[in-house]
Amino acid sequence: MDGRALLFVGPDGSGRFTLAEAIGITLHIPRVVSYTTREKRTKETEGKEYHYITESEFKQMEQNEEFIEVVQADGICYGITKVDCERLLKENGSFFAILSPEGCEIFKKLFDKTLTIFVQADKETVTQRQIQRGDDPQTIERHLSHYDEIMDYQSSCDIVIPNYDLASTAQELTTRIETFLGITHHPDSKY
Ligand SMILES: Nc1nc2c(ncn2[C@@H]2O[C@H](COP(=O)(O)OP(=O)(O)O)[C@@H](O)[C@H]2O)c(=O)[nH]1
Ligand SMILES: Nc1ncnc2c1ncn2[C@@H]1O[C@H](COP(=O)(O)OP(=O)(O)O)[C@@H](O)[C@H]1O
Fold first, then answer.
1. What is the model's pLDDT at position 26?
2. What range(s) does the Guanylate kinase-like domain occupy (predicted)?
3. What is the pLDDT of residue 187?
4. 174 burial type by CB count under 10 A (0-12 exposed, 13-18 middle, 19+ buried)
5. CB of 135 closer than 6 angstroms to any ligand 2 atom
6. Residue 189 domain-assigned?
7. Is residue 163 within 6 Å of ligand 2 at its C-beta?
8. What is the pLDDT of residues 37-94, one digit of tens each?
């Protein structure tokens, strides 16, 4: 596909969603929203974090070949549709996605220009953030069981960014994404 896909990957709780949202607002780049069969959590909103669908709806969409890629993790299905990617590329020329390493590899093959951004934080930090976010203990344990395997993927990414101080991480990442997108600023510009 002709267009630029910015792919966020990293361990759960590292801050992928937070950074993608913040940078998306600054640079006016939308995020492609995945479909999932997992239940919507109380704090989540349909169409914001995900599109929540049943397993049979997911199967039907898969049979109709609507997905550009699908992944199953811990019994939950996730997928991104071709039509959503095409629409965002037509409207904006680029989009963000939050993906597993497998999803990133598929997108790398399908898109002309991809930038893989690995958001990194240590195990203690991601654990604390998930507790604060209100994830239940089983979910945190499930996420942590994938931590080491996901960290191994950083060597395959274009950018590896540690996320501790949110403001400075967002600023550094914005600059690096602007370079990738070929956005230049007037030297006197404050932003
Ligand atoms: N390949 C792929 N991975 C996805 C997609 N949507 C989400 N993910 C990954 O699935 C993981 C689990 O999602 P999450 O919302 O945290 O569900 P939880 O594990 O139940 O808390 C995330 O860490 C993402 O990396 C998708 O459409 N494709
Ligand atoms: N640099 C940071 N400092 C402190 N808290 C952060 C930082 N980045 C993200 N968070 C918080 O940590 C939690 C996990 O971030 P989130 O973006 O949901 O992670 P992910 O999408 O990688 O699972 C959220 O509650 C978020 O507000």
1. 94
2. 3-178
3. 56
4. middle
5. no
6. no
7. yes
8. 999 988 899 999 999 999 999 999 999 999 999 999 889 999 999 999 999 999 999 9
* Inside any domain, residue 187: no
Backbone CA torsion sign across 110, 158, 129, 29: negative
SS (H, E, C) 70-111: EEEECCEEEEEEHHHHHHHHHHHCEEEEECCHHHHHHHHHHC
Q: How many domains does the chain have?
A: 1
Ligand 1 atom index nearest CA of 71: 1
State residue 188's pLDDT score.
58
Which ligand is in closest contact with the Cα of 79? 1
Predicted structure pTM score: 0.94
Across the chain, mean pLDDT equals 93
The percentage of residues in the chain with a pLDDT greater than 70, rounded to a whole number, is: 96
CA of residue 96 to ligand 1 center, whole Å: 14
Range of the domain at 136: 4-181
Angle at 32 between CA 28 and CA 35, to 5 degrees: 155
